[in-house]
């Protein structure tokens, strides 16, 4: 398992939302990032949590967090466990008041949105990153501007040409 963080949310050429999960211990512009296509509502929910913004009314993932807190449970971790026929699968590990850990099947977008609200670590299975990950071509402010611009252009070109069908096993 590789620990990741939300590296950003983008739109592909068809206007579909893509969440980018980037390993936390790899310098930006190196290694691989995992793109996962998600719905618009989930994208909004994740962005609100990552940016620390407040929604005017609780979103579904806020409700989940509140329910867990009220019941005394905690989110231990989130894992993107596998990809089958182009569909990603995830699990949320919850620790109850009795100390037992339960693993619950979840969509990756919901799992990441919940982890983003509870500060739970997010992990991706090595096989998933190797199979569906793409080369991280986007750097950060440490890189010279022309290198960053080239990386952004390469990534935009990738998003324009990629199709979710490309990730089917």
What does this structure look like?
The chain is of the alpha+beta class and 169 residues long. It has a single domain, classed as Bifunctional nuclease domain, CATH 3.10.690.10. Helices cover 35% and strands 33% of the residues. It has an 8-stranded mixed beta sheet with strand order 6-5-4-7-1-2-3-8. Helix 1 (40-51) packs parallel to helix 3 and helix 2 crosses helix 3. It is globular, with a radius of gyration of 16 Å. 30% of the residues are buried. The model is unreliable at 140-152 (pLDDT under 50).
Record keyword descriptors for this entry.
single chain; alpha+beta; Bifunctional nuclease domain; 5 helices; globular; BFN_sf; nuclease activity
How many individual domains? 1
Strand content: 25-35%
Categorize the overall geometry.
globular
CATH class, named: Alpha Beta
**Total beta strand runs:** 8
Characterize the largest beta sheet: strand count, sense, and whether it forms a barrel: 8 strands, mixed
Q: Numbering strands along the chain, what is their spatial order in the largest sheet?
A: 6-5-4-7-1-2-3-8
- Please give the radius of gyration in angstroms: 16 Å
**Average pLDDT for all residues:** 84
CATH architecture designation: Roll
Q: Helix proportion of residues, in percent?
A: 25-40%
Assign the CATH topology. Answer: Bifunctional nuclease domain
SSE order = EEEHHEEEHEHEH
Structural class: alpha+beta
Q: How many distinct helices?
A: 5
CATH superfamily: Bifunctional nuclease domain
- The CA-CA distance between the termini, in Å, is 20 Å
Contiguous runs where pLDDT drops below 50 for at least 5 residues: 140-152
């Amino acid at each position: 398992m590789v620990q990741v963080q939300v590296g950003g949310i983008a739109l592909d050429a068809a206007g579909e939302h893509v969440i980018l999960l980037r390993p936390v211990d790899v310098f930006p512009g190196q290694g691989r990032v995992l793109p996962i296509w998600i719905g618009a509502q989930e994208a909004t929910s994740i962005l609100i949590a990552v940016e620390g913004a407040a929604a005017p009314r609780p979103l579904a993932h806020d409700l989940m967090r509140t329910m867990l807190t009220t019941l005394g449970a905690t989110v231990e971790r989130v894992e993107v466990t596998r990809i089958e026929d182009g569909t990603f699968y995830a699990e949320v590990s919850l620790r109850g008041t009795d100390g037992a850990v339960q693993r619950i099947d979840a969509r990756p977008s919901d799992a990441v949105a919940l982890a983003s609200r509870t500060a739970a670590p997010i992990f991706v299975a090595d096989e998933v990153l190797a199979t569906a990950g793409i080369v991280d071509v986007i750097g950060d402010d440490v890189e010279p501007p022309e290198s960053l611009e080239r990386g952004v252009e390469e990534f935009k070109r990738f998003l324009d040409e990629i199709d979710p069908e490309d990730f089917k096993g």
